[in-house]
Amino acid sequence: MAASLQLNVRSFEPFFQSKPLSKHSPRLGTIRCSTATPQKRYTITLLPGDGIGPEVISVAKEVLKLTGSLEGIEFGFQEMPVGGSALDLIGLPLPKETLSAAKQSDAVLLGAIGGYKWDNNEKHLKPETGLLQLREGLKVFANLRPASVLPQLVDASTLKKEIAEGVDLMVVRELTGGIYFGKPRGFSTNENGDEIGFNTEVYATYEIDRIARIAFETARKRCGKLCSVDKANVLEASMLWRKRVTAIASEYPDVELSHMYVDNAAMQLVRNPKQFDTIVTNNIFGDILSDEASMITGSIGMLPSASLGESGPGLFEPIHGSAPDIAGQDKANPLATVLSAAMLLRYGLGEENAAKRIEAAVLDALNRGFRTGDIHSAGNKLVGCKAMGDEVLKSVDSQIPAAV
Ligand SMILES: NC(=O)C1=CN([C@@H]2O[C@H](COP(=O)(O)OP(=O)(O)OC[C@H]3O[C@@H](n4cnc5c(N)ncnc54)[C@H](O)[C@@H]3O)[C@@H](O)[C@H]2O)C=CC1
Ligand SMILES: CC(C)CC(=O)C(=O)O
């Protein structure tokens, strides 16, 4: 998909809508009785993972099922282990059966991986390694992370209302390169006999060019403003990044390109986030800046993501981790995962109406005052993960299908 993708990313009405991306292997399928006769069938690989992952995936699955039944779509779900749960079950953080199932499906929805239990494992036996292997295996190099401050949640932002209100940005994060994957890496001993750990931040021209094009396409469909974030005053990989992004800009004369060092970008995001429309950045800076951006919107529990490659199924996941501090307590906010399911429908399957139905349902549940603890404020109704899911389901059921 990606380089020729029609990215679809002007957000906020209600979330991140516009034209769908290409469809991935839509198949005609089984007919069954339901509100609408299913015309399409998709196989979705669910990877609940660890911590709050299974809790939020269970909500998103029900939301997808109900939405599908109302939109003439039937989903075949296959649940596979990844991360710590796969380590416990099979001894590997990404069993080959999981990767193979993911590759053969139409889209992949992941909860989160990781937890204290596996924190001291060797690198190749860490849950996080499984997630990196999955992203690499699916070749999903373009990670779209939208961060919009919903009017309903302005009060949940940690920033002042006048700073947070109206923020609507998209972080385009490079996902399969940079320091998370660069070699050499490892542990060794230096000339003084001190133990050292080392990693390599490395980008090739083709990796920068393809993510830059995705970012320019994204910006073009939004406000036409792209800010490339790097550390080109210090890092060679960033110097090449800046050179290539500048070169690719000549293909997009209608997009206004600016460059910013990452330390300044981190500061500007909390000083004046409305100056940003689309941000493109490398793997590690994108990871950090999108977590920072999430707090402007109220909570990391609200932010979804879509990871796309040139072909094959996309990977959709909330940007948060497994939140071991609240796992198993029915406290997790499932909305980031529900919204990731909406991104799956839009970007992964081209099912725009179904995506809009889910996004409208999330807004409706918020409008009716339901809040999990992370976004709760006085005057609203505090609910747990399951109850929030039930409210979204009620809203899915009651929403009039959005017009195409
Ligand atoms: N994509 C993934 O699967 C990721 C996995 N991780 C892993 O997750 C584990 C925990 O990492 P942390 O640094 O603590 O990050 P985290 O994102 O799991 O949690 C950070 C804070 O946000 C809260 N939080 C996160 N998601 C929430 C939700 N849906 N609702 C309400 N509160 C939520 C947590 O309770 C915690 O206080 C680690 O093992 C880490 O490696 C971290 C980031 C991404
Ligand atoms: C391998 C992951 C735990 C890295 C991460 O934090 C993320 O990409 O969200």
From TrEMBL:
One of its GO terms (biological process) is L-leucine biosynthetic process. Belongs to the isocitrate and isopropylmalate dehydrogenases family. It comes from Liquidambar formosana (Formosan gum). Pfam families: Iso_dh. Pathway: Amino-acid biosynthesis; L-leucine biosynthesis; L-leucine from 3-methyl-2-oxobutanoate: step 3/4. SUPFAM superfamilies: Isocitrate/Isopropylmalate dehydrogenase-like (SSF53659). It is an enzyme of class 1 (oxidoreductase). This is 3-isopropylmalate dehydrogenase. It comes from the Eukaryota. PROSITE patterns: IDH_IMDH. Its EC number is 1.1.1.85. Catalyzes the oxidation of 3-carboxy-2-hydroxy-4-methylpentanoate (3-isopropylmalate) to 3-carboxy-4-methyl-2-oxopentanoate. The product decarboxylates to 4-methyl-2 oxopentanoate. One of its GO terms (molecular function) is magnesium ion binding. It catalyses: (2R,3S)-3-isopropylmalate + NAD(+) = 4-methyl-2-oxopentanoate + CO2 + NADH. PANTHER family: 3-ISOPROPYLMALATE DEHYDROGENASE (PTHR42979:SF1). InterPro entries: IsoCit/isopropylmalate_DH_CS, IsoPropMal-DH-like_dom, Isopropylmalate_DH. Residues 43-392 form the Isopropylmalate dehydrogenase-like domain. Its cofactor is Mg(2+); Mn(2+). Binds 1 Mg(2+) or Mn(2+) ion per subunit.
